[in-house]
Every structure is written in structure tokens, then in C-alpha cells.
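Sample pair:
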Amino acid sequence: MTKDPFVQIRPYNDAELPYAINRMLANEGFVSCLVNFMPDIPLPTLSRKIRKYKTIFEFQKEIFSSICQTFIERSIDELTISGFENIDPNKSYLYVANHRDIILDSALLQVYRLKNGLKPCLSGIGDNLLSSQILTDVAKVCNMFTIVRSGNARTMVASSRLVSEYIHYNITQNLNSIWIAQRNGRTKDGLDKTQQSVLKMFCSFNREKGIYECIKTLNIIPLTISYEFEPCDQMKAREMVLTEGNKKYVKAPDEDFKSITTGIFSDKGRVHIQFGKTINDEIDTQLNFACDNERIQYVCSLIDKQIYLNYKLWQNNYIAYDILNNSTEFADKYTDEAKKIFVRHIRKQANTERISYAKMKQQLLNIYANPVKMAMATKS
């Protein structure tokens, strides 16, 4: 039997599904979630139904998609998606996405693909979020592969190369599309900027190839998600305040789990997802750069440009910009009522224990105003 080189990071396969289902149904927290999100089906009936699933796709289509639909109905007023005409259903793509919510950013894309008859993407998730067996099981039955973010330098290099090989294998041979965040961790300040380390990881497998050749084989499409009300905005602003002056931020033991649940359940208003266009045709191979680092940064700038221009600017974004700049530059973009609602939201979120109200308010406004600033800078 040929050894699976990706067994440590890949999602579960169909043969592993029954064992994962047994573990999940034995977990009280998972069962409570099922009852909460699928209340119309008695638990014994639901458990029997789940145990009959033979494939990962069946589980995703019937259970994962149903749970996500409940998330959408309970916390999103309207979900819109555009740019899907840029996607060839017979091709595989690497969606490099801005990252605002731990779970929903990729989950909403998966639900949309399932509804449109496409198989789900693979999605990258940091190993720091897989802190228990139940979280690992849920992630791996939902097509998530693991990106290792801890260890010594040698371990990190080996892990990066393995993930890179896995991405290339799926895009070029398995024809599986992949969602991956443009950075390690969510954007805290509203500035969606692609990290060079992510692009370097993409190229770490095929080092003998040039940067551009390696990038082009992946069919990268920038993907932008825009929330009217930023998920976990209070938690993000708080972290920004606490890390001022390069102070180290130490997460509470349950902070990642709290971020996941807060992001899922909090009111997000309207949400928009925009598919960009593949960057392959935008890469100018004739540009003269001194080294690969400069080429990587150039590719990052192409991704960032689409993400900035494709970000759906809501009334809240324009209101925040005007408040910060004490201006009425974008007064025609929002109503007085919308401003009252947003100001009330900011006041509520800026009130938190042992943190300056003024600093919290400033950071919260920055989160919402920065997409406007980046769009303006990109257009100029």
C-alpha cells in the first residue's frame, strides 16, 4: 500500500468518516449544536440519519450546509455574491481571500458552491484552532486541511513545503479548488494586506520553477468578503489597543473558541462576496526586479489591488471615515438614520472592562474606515 504523504494535514476521506461521526455524536457539545441548528428533526432520527452517510460530500451537503444556512438566517440580513462569471466550473482555482471571520469567510463560500452544484473547496485552517478532537473532527469532515503555525524553524520549513505540495497537487492534479486566507490570522485593523510569507509558502514546493511560473500554475483568484457589521469588532479593537507600542498579546485559553462563536452568532447585517479575476494575465513578467522577494511583493500587490477595489463599502464604512476625519465628504453615501444606528453600535462596543473608551472608539472606527482609505488610495 502506498503511503499517503499528506495524511497529517489533509481532510478526512470517506473511509474515515464513520469513525469521525461516532466521535462527534459522542460529544455533548456537538450534539447540542445539532439540536440547536436542526430543531425540526428529533435527535434519535438525526443521529440515525447521520450514521448512514457514506461520503464526506453527503455529510457536507446535508449537515454542514444545513447548519451554515441556519447561521445565515439567524445573523445575516442579506447575503449577495457577484463575479461568479469569472469562474470556469471545469477549472480549479486557489482563492486567496481577505480574512475577517474564522469560520464564516470560507463557510459561506462552501454553501454557495454546494447550492450551485459544485463540490466544496478545500480550506486551510491553522493548527492553533484545532485544540481538541471534536474541533479537529468537525474541521476535517468539512474539507479543511491543516496549516502548521508552531514549531522550530526546521519544522516550519518542512510543514510549509508539505502544504505547498498539497496545494499544487490538488490544483493541478485533483482539480480541487482551494480557499486560503491572505494572511495568518484575521485582519484586526480593517487593512486587508496579503502577507509575503503566504505567497512564499505557495512557491516553496517548486523552488526550481520561477516565481511567476509557480504562481500561474495555481490560478489565483482574489476573493473579497465584506461585512456590514464586522465580526468580533470589539475583540479585534481590544487586541489592537492592548498591543499598542509592540506589546505582546497573550490570548485567553478559550479566546479562539469565543471568537468562533461570537463571529457566528453576532449580527452582521448584510454580507457581500466578490469573486475577482485570475491574476495570471496581470502579471507583467517583463518588469525588472532585483530578487524573488521583490517579485513576491509584486504579486501580493496584484492580489491586494483586487481585494481593495472589490470590497463592498457599506454605509458604516463611509460614516466611520467621516467621523474620523471630522468631515462630510461621503455624506451622500449614508442616511442620518444609518449614522445613528452605527454610532450607537460603536458606543456599545467601545465600552469594555479595563480598556480606555477613547482608544477603543478610535480602533473601532479605524476598522470600518480603513477599507474606504484603501479603496481611495488604490483608485488614485
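The mean pLDDT is 93.
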